[in-house]
Amino acid sequence: MEEALSHRVGPDFRIADVDPTSTPGFEWDKEDWETEFHEHDDELDELQSKLYANARAETPGTGGLLLVLQGMDTAGKGGVVRNVFQAFDPELLEIATFGKPTPEERSHDFLWRIRPHEPAVGQIAIFDRSHYEDVLIQRVHQMAPAEEIERRYGAIVEFERDMANRGIRIIKVMLHISKDFQKENLLERLEDPEKYWKYNPGDLDEREHWVEYMEAYETALRRTSTDSAPWYCIPGDRKKYARMAVKYLVLDALRSMDLEWPEADFDVEAELERARKA
Amino acid sequence: MEEALSHRVGPDFRIADVDPTSTPGFEWDKEDWETEFHEHDDELDELQSKLYANARAETPGTGGLLLVLQGMDTAGKGGVVRNVFQAFDPELLEIATFGKPTPEERSHDFLWRIRPHEPAVGQIAIFDRSHYEDVLIQRVHQMAPAEEIERRYGAIVEFERDMANRGIRIIKVMLHISKDFQKENLLERLEDPEKYWKYNPGDLDEREHWVEYMEAYETALRRTSTDSAPWYCIPGDRKKYARMAVKYLVLDALRSMDLEWPEADFDVEAELERARKA
């Protein structure tokens, strides 16, 4: 699914050019899509183990991976985490969910609550929402002055560049759904008592700001999509497609690390001899 | 696999009575074992969602779950985490791995580094190793005076009772392998370059203390297996069996919570009306 890479955000990015229902490179409704979805699971598993093994062995140059997930309510962020990362060992994943900031968090710089979750070497980390909320919802509702929002784009680029400089690959994904698809999703939550808990009346209020949100996303993605921390605007109305695409981006990033199993840091023959007698 | 419950540790527990190769209630080598292994995956998924939903809805009486995993090196703790918890949403799991304490951790009471990882209401938490290391390795190597080890059994019982009192179900599992099986596992690591990174020459030194470790485990399990935080000594030589058994214990604990989907805390009809127009 190399087409996933084609969703990369460049300097001329316009969100209106991305059709949320499109599925380039994938027949999202084909019968055996699950086979394709799981095609590289063993490889992903091995890549994760290799990454972790090299961190433990302190192999110079070992990096980490960060996936940032953003999207409007009901865009399917949780489903991506759930389905894409099933291929990995949960013990070796670091998943941070960023909700509404607490009063303490608000009393610090916007990156204060994010920094402790920076992936360590050897780690695969996921941000379900992120520091981008501070240039999205905060811009739409003017919760910070325009100059401060402006400053944040630069601060984000620097923050991510520093992470990249210590070997962290960064993939940023906006799950781009249509306003109609969100409506379907919200109605689904209201029509199924098993989903009431996912529904929040405030979600409907936010819908009224759809256009401003799209503007805020467009600006944020354009201003912060860099070579070391690119954005991908993934069509989100076909959930299977979005999951396939994110999975491919993760696979591609891990492959690009050219990971090998670390060498033994002990005398293998001598240890074999000892072990046979032990 | 209700037989898993039969491994519960009582006051007369003797570790020598548990055959690490036994597999009561399960033909561990049957062809379609995977079907049985995944039989309750949908139920587990739903139970986890219900638990989380009730915590979000602040339903009174909502609890949490803690699984403590202990075992000798190569006992398969990582494999249990990996395989059993694949049925769950990784975003809603809290997995804490307790390695060798840092100097800072050693300068505090032994529970200091554990407490921040107590599961919150709605959470499913796993401890890969735990506070029990402080009455196992520390006892075997006399890293703490005998009176201090003695004090810790009581402190652990109290710590776990407090957790149970705020609704946390606690399952403690010792994956009990034979000394021969450990040898096989260590040799496997030494014979496969992809597994060198898992091998640590210190593991062979620890093997020399096998008998003392079994004594330390027997005492710890007997002294700290309570109604609210029972130990299960699970035969570990057949990995599939151990995974099946742990999975059943988790299922059983979640079922015992009698979870229902929370009620809506908003006017469903009014919201449906709004949503249709939005």
From TrEMBL, chains A, B:
It comes from the Bacteria. Gene3D superfamilies: P-loop containing nucleotide triphosphate hydrolases (3.40.50.300). Pfam families: PPK2. GO terms for molecular function: polyphosphate kinase activity. The keyword Acetylation does not apply. The keyword Signal does not apply. Residues 29-258 form the Polyphosphate kinase-2-related domain. InterPro entries: P-loop_NTPase (IPR027417), Polyphosphate_phosphotransfera (IPR016898), PPK2-rel_1 (IPR022300), PPK2-related (IPR022488). Keywords: Kinase, Transferase. GO terms for biological process: polyphosphate metabolic process. SUPFAM superfamilies: P-loop containing nucleoside triphosphate hydrolases. Coiled coil: none annotated. NCBIfam families: PPK2_rel_1 (TIGR03709). This is DUF344-like protein. It comes from Corynebacterium marinum DSM 44953.
